[in-house]
Amino acid sequence: xxxxxxxxxxxxxxxxxxxxxxxxxxxxxxxxxxxxxxxxxxxxxxxxxxxxxxxxxxxxxxxxxxxxxxxxxxxxxxxxxxxxxxxxxxxxxxxxxxxxxxxxxxxxxxxxxxxxxxxxxxxxxxxxxxxxxxxxxxxxxxxxxxxxxxxxxxxxxxxxxxxxxxxxxxxxxxxxxxxxxxxxxxxxxxxxxxxxxxxxxxxxxxxxxxxxxxxxxxxxxxxxxxxxxxxxxxxxxxxxxxxxxxxxxxxxxxxxxxxxxxxxxxxxxxxxxxxxxxxxxxxxxxxxxxxxxxxxxxxxxxxxxxxxxxxxxxxxxxxxxxxxxxxxxxxxxxxxxxxxxxxxxxxxxxxxxxxxxxxxxxxxxxxxxxxxxxxxxxxxxxxxxxxxxxxxxxxxxxxxxxxxxxxxxxxxxxxxxxxxxxxxxxxxxxxxxxxxxxxxxxxxxxxxxxxxxxxxxxxxxxxxxxxxxxxxxxxxxxxxxxxxxxxxxxxxxxxxxxxxxxxxxxxxxxxxxxxxxxxxxxxxxxxxxxxxxxxxxxxxxxxxxxxxxxxxxxxxxxxxxxxxxxxxxxxxxxxxxxxxxxxxxxxxxxxxxxxxxxxxxxxxxxxxxxxxxxxxxxxxxxxxxxxxxxxx
Length: 632
Ligand SMILES: Nc1ncnc2c1ncn2[C@@H]1O[C@H](COP(=O)(O)OP(=O)(O)OP(=O)(O)O)[C@@H](O)[C@H]1O
Prior knowledge:
Elements: H1 5-14, H2 52-55, H3 81-84, H4 134-141, E1 160-163, H5 174-177, H6 181-189, H7 197-207, E2 212-216, H8 222-236, E3 253-256, H9 260-273, E4 281-284, H10 290-298, E5 303-306, H11 308-316, E6 327-331, H12 333-336, H13 342-351, E7 361-366, H14 371-377, E8 385-389, E9 399-405, H15 411-425, E10 433-437, H16 441-453, E11 458-461, H17 467-479, E12 484-487, E13 500-505, H18 512-519, E14 529-535, H19 543-552, H20 559-570, H21 612-615, H22 619-622
Parallel strand pairs: 2-7, 2-8, 3-5, 3-6, 4-5, 6-7, 9-14, 10-12, 10-13, 11-12, 13-14
Antiparallel strand pairs: 1-8
Helix pairs in contact: 1-17, 7-8, 8-9, 11-13, 19-20
The protein binds adenosine-5'-triphosphate.
Adenosine-5'-triphosphate binds at residues 22, 24, 27, 192, 195-196, 199, 216, 218-224, 367, 494, 496, 520, 524-525.
C-alpha cells in the first residue's frame, strides 16, 4: 500500500503534537451544581469481568440506601424499559440486584441512587483517564481559537417537533435529568454547560424507556443524546441475563455506525461519558487486527460500539452474543438502512439472537431521514417517538454556504486560489483545517499528490487505504500537522473534528443528504464554518435541492443556480425536497401519502419512491457494493 508523503511528515510531526480527541473549551466554567465526584471504593479481588449492575453487590443483608428526602434521584426517575414491561424482561432468572448499592426499596426493580454506586469498582482504579491531556495540547496547536466563534445559543430558537404517544416533556438542564453523579461529573469534565436541543428532548424520551427516531442537525450533540441514557440505564438497570458460555461476550448495548472512524470516535466519546461509572465500552471495526478486539471483549463489555461487517464476523465466530442487548442505537441510521447496509443490519437485528423490538429499546439518530428510510426503520421500532430538531436534513445557519460555477478543468486552479486566499487573509486562524471532498478514491489520491507537489500539506482518507493509513491521516489532520484532508464520503458522516474551518466540495455528491453531512463537518457545536461547492453542468440534478437547502438556511442563492434549479424542475427533475420551506420535522406516519408504496415522499418529490434512493445517488457504487466498500 502506498504511504502518503504527507503522512510521513505528519507522522513525524505528530510525535511532537499530541492529538486531542474533542475539545470544547468554549464550554468552560461548566459545573453542574448537582454534580459530585464519584467515590472510588476498594477493589475486590475478582479476576473476571463483572457487569456494572453486579459490581456493587455485597452481602444480601446489606440495607438499601435510603431515598433522598427530597425525592431526587430515584423519585425523579421515569420508569425504564424493564418497568414498562412489568419487571425484568431480559433476565427471567433470579433477581441479582439484591444488596446492590443504590438499590432502593420501593423502586420498580431498577432501584435508584444513581450516584451511590460506591463500592466494588474493580476496574475503575485502573481505568485510563480518557480526558487526560486533551485540552492543553490541542489548544496549544490551535492557538486557543476554540474560544472564538462560539454561538451555542444559535440552537435556542430552533423548531422542534415530536410525534408519537405520550411524549415525555423536555428538560432545560442536565441536573433536571439526573443522570447520576458519575455521569454528571463526566458532563462537567466535557465542559458541557447545558444540554443541546436534541439532548433536551431525546434524553427524557430515552430515559422513559421509549423507542426513538431522532433527526437533528449535524454537530448538534446527538452522540451524547443517546449515550447518556444508555450509560445511565446500564448503571442502574436490571441485570441482563448472562449465560457464561466460554469466551462469548454479552453486551447490554449495541451502537452501530457506518464507518470505522466514526465507531472509533463514538467509542472515545462513550468512554469519556462513562468514565468511572464501571460501564465498560469496547469497539470492534474492520481493518484492524481482530485478536486485540477479541481480547478486549473477553475482559467484558457493557456497551459494544461496532461497524456492521466486523460485528457479523464476531457473531459468526460466536465471540459475541446479542441475547442480552437491551439498548440498540443506530447512528447515521438512514445510512445504516440504505441499500448498501440494510441487509446486514436486518441480519444483525432480526436474524441473530437479539431480543425483538419491544423487548429492547431502539434509538435511531441522524441529521437526515428520508421518508422511505423512515418507513424501513419503523420495522425495528416499537411504539416510537419521532423527534425532529430543526428542519430535517437541513444544514445549520452557522455554516456559510457558497456555490461557485467551476468547470472540471478549472477545479484545481480554483482550489489553489481558495487555499492561497485562506492562507493570506488568515480568515480562519493560523491553523484552519480544510476538508476537501471528492467523488472517487483515485481522485482523492491524485488531488492529494497534486496539492503536495504544489506545496500544500495534504493527506487523504478513503476506502483503498489501509486502516492504519486512514487513522494516521485523520490524526495528522486533527492535530493540524497536515491541515488539508482530501476525502471521499467515508469522512462525510459523523466525524467531529473541532477545527475544520472550511469544507470544499471539489466534486459535489449526487445526493443532497450527502451534501448536508459533508458540510456538517464544519460549523459544529455552535461554531461557525464555511462551505464552498464547485458546481457545473454535471451537477445539474442537484441544482434544485441545493438551491432550496441554501434558501432554507438563509444563504444567498446565486441567480445562475436558481436558473439551473428552475430548468431542472421544468424537466421534471427528481427532487426530494420540493417541500421547500415546509418544516421538515415530519414523521412519515403522519403523512398519509407517503404510505403508498413507491409513492412520492414527504418532500414532494419522487426521489425515494420505488427504491430510487441509493440507486440514483452515487451510493450504488461505493456504498452499494460491499466488496468495494469501506463501510464496514
Ligand atoms: N451539551 C453540550 N454542550 C457543549 N458541547 C456539546 C454538547 N453536546 C455535545 N457537544 C459537542 O458538540 C460536538 C458535536 O457533537 P456530536 O458529534 O455528537 O454531533 P452530531 O449531532 O452527532 O453530529 P453529526 O450529525 O455530524 O454526527 C462535539 O464536539 C460534542 O462534544
